[in-house]
Amino acid sequence: MHEYRTACSLDATPEEVFSWHMRPGALERLTPDWADATVVERTGTIQDGGRVVLRLRRGPASFRWVLKHTAFEDGVLFRDEQVEGPFGAWVHTHRFTAQGSGCLIEDEVRWEAPLGAAGSLFPASLIENELDRLFRFRHARLRNDLARQSRYGNGPALRVGVTGSSGLLGRALTHLLTTQGHQVVPFLRTRPPKGAEAAFWNPHTGEIDAHLLEGLDAIVHLAGESIAGSRWTPERKHRILESRVQGTECISRAMASLSTPPPVLVSASAVGYYGDRGNEILDESASPGKGFLAKVVREWEGATLSAERAGVRVVKLRLGMILSADGGALGKMLLPFKVGVGGRLGSGRQYVSWIDMDDAVGLILHAIRTPDLSGPLNATAPYAVPNATFTSTLGRVLHRPTMIPVPGFAVKTMFGEMGIALLLEGCRVHPSKAEKTGFMFLYPALEESLRFQLGKDEDSTD
User: Fold this and answer.
1) How far are the Cα atoms of 58, 60, 139, 313, 327 from residue 116, in angstroms, in the given order?
2) What angle do CA 399, 400, 404 make, to 5 degrees?
3) In angstroms, rounded to a whole number, what is the distance separating the alpha carbons of residues 13 and 18?
4) CB count, 10 Å around CB of 124?
5) pTM (two decimals)
6) Contact at 8 Å (CB) between 132 and 23?
């Protein structure tokens, strides 16, 4: 068997680090989006007898990977062993020991190549390089999450209602909150089983289990129809506007109807509020722009009025492009860039206001935990960049050329109004309120965010 070892020093006690691993969402937080691995089934915890089933995808191939947990020693050790999967054998041992006032976490992986005897065709160095890449990501995210737990963990655990919990941002937020020791109550559009920690809502009809909102410490409202994916016909524009306004009004009115509503509502919004503004630097005090997206965002944010009048602290989260390999705009860009046909869009001068996924979910936690923060909140990194800079940076990270620009007329022909608004126009947004209220960005610069989210260090050549 081959053996791989690595270690990481953390500024937290072994008890704190081990407890983090015991909570729901830990495996999901430690699994990078670029690994294309999904937890499809889970039984028990990391204690002996627990099992987890993952679905791994590599190009067109898909693998089922079943692991069982063994050798559990509370606060000290646990182990994952392959029951079924792509390797000939796989045993991963996690050890936690005190190191001064902190913790040393050691990972030992013993493995045999896949495909039996034919596995000898796979150089061990290839798998070891992938393990290096994986554990760099895991240790960085674990260190960052523990730091945020230390910063925002004072006080009792929270119960947070989340709409859109199955979406790209909702999934990441859910796993961050649960590993921090908080409870997430998802809002579902199908009635949950009796006794489930979930609430039913139907934003189109206005139905909602309002009584289940009583006792929540916060609601994070992320649901809404995607603005990308297809042309903006009149019918689609109506659905986009309706989904955001109706859903927000439903939540807002339900909160206002309670004698003791949750104290804070963090409601998703978008930097589309500012319209196409060229090189102008825009903080939260900037005036609204023009166009369909600006109109949508104004009405979307206005739909929180009932909650505000009821004394709820409302934070309107003006999200920029969220960087994640799991989906969204970056996920759609990866294939053309990887095959070498990525390039700037139109003139390339339009600004892209972006935010790292880990900073996006961290900023939501910051909004919940910061009592004097209300109103619009720009959820963008401090350094927006022109599209041409975004393109060249992504190409550099992926080690791919970016020499094939897409002319503006081609974007207009292919995507119509949607392409103009989302790809050829832009705004240079600055997160002034986040900075003034003490939020610490993990990835303020574009290249470091892309390298983290895509698992590409400066020495990688793939």
Assistant:
1) 19, 22, 31, 60, 34
2) 155
3) 9
4) 13
5) 0.95
6) no
- Give the mean pLDDT per block of 10 residues along the chain (462 residues): 95 96 97 93 95 91 94 97 94 97 97 67 83 96 96 90 96 97 96 90 94 95 88 93 95 96 97 96 97 96 97 98 92 87 92 98 98 98 97 95 90 91 94 98 98 86 57
Q: What is the rounded CA–CA span in Å between residue 443 and residue 453?
A: 10
Half-sphere exposure of 448 (CA within 13 A, CB side): 10
What CA dihedral angle connects 292, 295, 296 and 299, to 10 degrees?
-170
The torsion region of residue 448 among left (phi > 0), alpha (psi -120 to 50) and beta comes to: alpha
